Amino acid sequence: MINPLRGMKDLTFEEGQRFVHIVKTAIDVAKKYGYSYIETPILEETALFKRSVGNSSDIVSKEMYQFEDKGGNDVCMRPEGTAGVVRAFISAKLDRQPVKQKFYYYGPMFRYERPQKGRLREFHQFGCESFGEDSVYEDFTIIQMISQIFSELGVNFELLINSLGCVECMPPYKQHLVGFLRETQEALCEDCNRRIDTNPIRVLDCKNTTCQSLLENSPKLINNLCETCDSDFNKLTALLDKAGISYRVDTNLVRGLDYYNKTAFEFVSNDIGSQSSIAGGGRYDKLVEFLDGKPTPAVGFALGIERIMELVQMPEEEREGIYLGAMTEEAVEALFPIATAKRKEQKVSVEYTSKGFKSHMKGADKANARYCVLIGEDELKNGTVWVKDLESKEETTVPVEAF
Ligand code: HAM
């Protein structure tokens, strides 16, 4: 028997419904905020992710599904959606238009991580990217949009926010931090030691408890922001306060992708174990330029659909549509014109095998249909159908044309 690959899974019936419910809810909300759909390829040039997500990030250095295709090109299954959307934005020359653009997308992402609960090698994200808006109002609006998605899905969360500064305040802070890290170097874990040279900011994110306690005394970027970043961050927290969206400032929140500046955020859940991040995002004002587009400020997020599937409260399913059945062999084909007509407006399930009354009633119940509609010998002869409303329990016989 051939099974799915490790860290990849099928979404069977109930899970499939959860998946669709999350995507549909997220799309409905995103549309209300002015986002339109974008689809980009799953396979891209490896260079795209190296340049955007960052060479020294775990995603690029350890987790890429990277291979040479038959034409000798170095390609990669996308580990995340932002890089591809930015590439598409530049490919379509949208960076040269003064219009602000907002896109949403959803689909599979691939990271060769060690699989565990909530951590898959193929997982799905729903994401949004907003281009051309440098106001912190947009950061706030995106956070509000995610809160709305979670509230409509009945998912509780804790919001963590931080500022990663900009080209002005980040470099001096980095130096300051490296100085501190060098002093504590011997006590830090192997990963952190490597990161001091390659990506010192990521040290702040280390999950090792010894490193965590040493880092409590590290310099905090939030206290070293330039005037603009500081004022934007204060504006963001004030807007969140006003909107009643609670948050915690997490000075160690640096995100695992290198393209962020200024606002960074993560939505976490305490109900799904150690892989608790259910959505993450932030501002990435330099990425379009970095991928050879015209300078364009941008901000976005992605949520992890499989993690949210564990948390979502599914609406109770109401009886819906019609179950059609025949009581005699001759009546079976009389069901099809009715099905064709009714399917223009509602869900119809057709039982192809003629059966007795009780069997059909069971079938209608299993299909969770609102109406059980049957044709027997008499109905076929008279051009009628027998209809039972399974909610009100009312039964009627009506001419086919009137049904
Ligand atoms: P990310 O934080 O790497 O951000 O991923 C976003 C979400 O994807 C996470 O919060 C988590 O729910 C889910 N996720 C990540 N890895 C896995 C995994 N191995 N298994 C299951 N779920 C996972 C990004 O990908 C950025 N592109 C977000 C963004 C968009 N920033 C700006 N725009």
Q: Approximately how much beta-strand content do the residues carry?
A: 15-25%
Strand order of the largest sheet: 1-5-6-11-10-9-7-8
How many strand units?
16
Terminal CA distance = 48 Å
Helix content: 25-40%
Please write the CATH class name of the largest domain. Answer: Alpha Beta
Structural class, from helix and strand content?
Answer: alpha+beta
Give the name of the CATH superfamily of the largest domain: Bira Bifunctional Protein, Domain 2
Low-pLDDT sequence parts? none
Small molecules in complex: histidyl-adenosine monophosphate
What do we call the CATH topology of the largest domain? BirA Bifunctional Protein, domain 2
CATH architecture of the largest domain: 2-Layer Sandwich
Shape: elongated
Number of helices: 14
Rounded Rg: 27 Å
Helix and strand pattern: HEEHHEEHEEHEHHHHEEEHEHEHEHEHEE
Mean pLDDT: 96
Largest sheet data: 8 strands, mixed
Number of domains: 2
